[in-house]
Design goal:
Helices cover 43% and strands 15% of the residues. The strands form three sheets. Strands 6, 7, 8, 9, 10, 11 and 12 form a seven-stranded mixed beta sheet that branches. It has a three-stranded antiparallel beta sheet with strand order 1-2-5. Strands 3-4 form a two-stranded antiparallel ribbon. Helix 5 packs antiparallel against helix 6 (216-226) and helix 8 (263-272) runs parallel beside helix 9 (287-300). The protein has helices at 41-45, 53-58, 67-72, 80-133, 174-186, 216-226, 238-246, 263-272, 287-300, 309-318; strands at 2-4, 11-13, 22-24, 31-33, 77-78, 160-165, 193-200, 203-205, 212-213, 251-256, 276-281, 303-306. The chain starts with a strand and ends in a 5-residue tail after the last helix. It has two domains: 2-81, no CATH class; 145-318, Rossmann fold, CATH 3.40.50.410. With 323 residues, it is an alpha/beta fold.
Length: 323
């Protein structure tokens, strides 16, 4: 017969031969009364509340069971259907939980995908905007450029050739151009090479046919070379750029206040040779020179600075004096 344990409330099975006696629950190991034959298991297994004190006095009581009898009590069998139902319900709940987690992960992935598309779209718009403005926007230096490597806040790659305009148009700003170049040479690291081309009405002049070492030794050579030079006359700057490209420099720095002719051809040759062109525009800057300088810088991967005399003087005042 099948009865329900009055302690743990689980169904158990016991042979009919033990009807009217006791058994032990296989789940909680407690002693359980077995109903008599013909009586309801639900009634026999669970104590009935008497309706009156008289019934309480007349109701049969279970007498004490000796330890020997308790040890010899038969062990009831568990009703397996309960375990099967529990397993089925547990599995069903796990499936529901897994399905919910999968939906959550899918929703999160979809949200990330949409956000990623929006970010990529925004990044493409910013990149497109930057590409459109790349020929016109050049960042200004945030620290004194004379105290760091490069020239006027622009960092170049060695070996570099400086092209200094030595014509009469530079009479007011020639010394500023020389100072910028010398500070740049002094800031170069060990093993870095450079050379200089002066553009004059008499031709192109350099302190050496070979590369010069950056640092103090190179600065001394340049200082001596330019000590007695006075800008005068007029000359085209493009031949100097052509000579610099033949020297296989990685960077060309042009210091001038004039426009450079044949800009498109220079860009084509510089790109072919993988040379970046950096330009320093000094005052008084010709109106046509500004756009030409920006084109040369942006289309070769270089940079451009337009400097005033007061700006350069402030930098010189804040830096260590030239030797």
């Amino acid at each position: 017969m099948k009865i329900r344990c009055q302690h743990c409330r689980k169904k158990i099975s016991i042979d009919d031969a033990f009807a009217g006696g006791f058994c032990r629950c296989p789940y909680c190991n407690e002693i359980v009364p077995v109903p008599s034959r013909g009586k309801s298991a639900a009634v026999e297994a669970r104590p009935v509340r008497p309706e009156s004190p008289q019934e309480l006095q007349q109701s049969p009581r279970i007498g004490p069971i000796s330890p020997e009898s308790a040890e010899s009590l038969p062990m009831a069998n568990p009703v397996r259907i309960q375990g099967i139902i529990t397993i089925v319900l547990s599995g069903f709940l796990l499936l529901i939980l897994a399905f919910g987690i999968a939906l959550l992960i899918k929703a999160r992935a979809l949200q990330n995908y949409k956000e990623g598309k929006e970010v990529n779209h925004t990044a493409k718009e910013v990149q497109s905007s930057n590409e459109q403005d790349s020929e016109m926007v050049f960042p200004e230096p945030t620290v004194n450029p004379l105290t760091v490597r490069g020239i006027a806040g622009m960092d170049f790659t060695s070996p570099v050739i400086f092209i200094l305009d030595g014509t009469s148009s530079m009479q007011q700003s020639f010394d500023f151009g020389v100072a910028l170049m010398r500070y740049s040479i002094l800031a170069m690291g060990a093993g870095e090479k450079f050379n200089l081309i002066i553009v004059s009405e008499e031709g192109l002049f350099s302190p050496s046919d070979d590369w010069l070492d950056g640092g103090e030794d190179g600065d001394k050579r340049v200082k001596k070379f330019l000590s007695e030079y006075v800008p005068a006359g007029t000359a085209d700057l493009s031949p100097a750029v052509a000579r610099a490209l033949l020297k296989k420099a990685k960077s060309i720095v042009i210091i001038t206040n004039r426009s450079i002719s044949n800009a498109n051809k220079i860009v084509e040759k510089a790109r072919k040779a993988s040379v970046k062109i950096y330009l320093v525009g000094l005052e008084p800057l010709e109106a046509s020179a500004l756009e030409t300088m920006k084109i040369l810088a942006s289309k070769t991967g270089g940079d451009f600075r337009h400097l005033t005399a007061s700006e350069i003087m402030q930098w010189i005042d804040d830096a260590e004096p030239l030797p």
